[in-house]
Amino acid sequence: MQQIFNFIFKNSTGILFLLLLSISLSLTIQSHSFHKSRIISSANFLTGGVYEEINSFTEYLNLKTENDALALENARLKSILFNTKDTTTIEKPQNLKGVAPDDIVVSKVIHNSYNTHENFLTLNSGANDGVKPDMGVINSLGIVGIIDRTSAKYSTVVSILNTKSQINAKIKKSNHFGSLTWNGKSTGYVQLVDVPRLASVRKGDTIVTGGQSVIFPEGINIGTVDKVYKEEETNYYVLNIKLFNDMTNLGHVYIIKSKDRDEVNNLEKEIKKDE
Amino acid sequence: MSSTFFINILRFILLLTLQIVIFNNMTFLGFIMPLPYILFIILYPVNSNKPTLIISSFLLGLIMDLFSNSGGIHTTACLILAYYRPYLFKFAFGVSYEYQTIKLNESITPERFSFILLAVVIHHFTLFILEAFQVTFIFDILIRTLLSTIFTIISCIIIIYLIKPNKR
What we know:
Chain B: This is Rod shape-determining protein MreD. Chain B: Keywords: Membrane, Transmembrane, Transmembrane helix. The complex is a heterodimer. By secondary structure, chain A is of the alpha+beta class. Chain A contains 5 helices and 12 strands. Among the domains of chain A are: about 1-30; about 45-85 and about 100-160, Thrombin, subunit H (Beta Barrel), CATH 2.40.10. Chain A has helices at about 1-10, 10-30, 45-60, 65-85, 260-275; strands spanning about 105-110, 120-125, 135-140, 145-150, 155-160, 165-170, 175-180, 190-195, 205-210, 220-230, 235-245, 250-255. In chain A, a hairpin with a 4-residue loop joins strand 3 and strand 4 (about 145-150). Chain B has one domain (about 1-165). Chain B contains 6 helices and no strands. The longest helix of chain B is centred in the last third of the chain and has 26 residues, at about 140-165. The interface between A and B is large, with 41 and 36 residues.
């Protein structure tokens, strides 16, 4: 007994180190398993508050570009306003199949990371605004990511620039499906893998979200094909896609809740029950 | 004793604030980020007790992880650096490092520079390995480690010169 205590006293630093190391390693490993919720995230009171403060400052510096974007959007809105008979509509992204205008939450990116392999965004709306995990996030140019975790006022988003992210997407003109991944290299490009070789793809074709995903409505813009090559092992096409969005510069985003989603999920549950 | 204690707490808060507010937003070529917050571990007094250093570097890393959404990678890297710091001292300054009163914030000699270099390399290498978590990214990890080390050391040296008390 005496010897055990002596051993512990002698190696107290080492034991403390190992204890804390195991905690931190388990946090690391847990964060790499994608679908588990993370304990350490920037969607909490302290970090969200600090990021809000920092963002209010950087927002001031970006006023000019934001103004330009708003001016562009204004011009577009006005052109819609003057060209339609029904002038009462409010401009939220429309023509989204299966999404009512009430199911769109307008939010703002308060923290954006794009320099690691697994990137996350932080938004300033949370469960109080009706945001729930697994909702899709888009902006006026294209898709941004999927909600990962929410607190009362903030939420984190798995960016499409995340090597763990997989989103169903298709080629707009031919309806061939593939899944959208990122190889961790350039922030302007993502990859569409597992595209069948029957598909006729050419440089410049538009890629949109596919209908198989219940997170995103069908037909939201992603990007254009930049390069087509064949994967040696599987003989499927891999497409290098140039994003419409500049992921390094995001302002306002829309969080969308697909109305059909519950319906689809229920239907699939019923099928499983029947089996 | 109490004055060094308060200086360390002040350093802890100041370096974290600097890192989160300024350096986290400073990215070169899209992926190189200087991480001068580890100066806290580097500049920690040589002879003070080790458990305090290990616990405080755990907290330091944890707060960084909270702000950068990265699970536990900063925590692990900081812990490893804090634990192996005495060995780095021994390597850089010789066996009798404990009997010297080394203050890193005096002037930068080759020994001090080699100590800082080693510490930064160890921290960054652990960090980027855990961040990628895949063997296929090994080349990427090495490049990130190399380039980030350069930028971290430059920012560390600038900070050391800025907080250096004006003697002489």
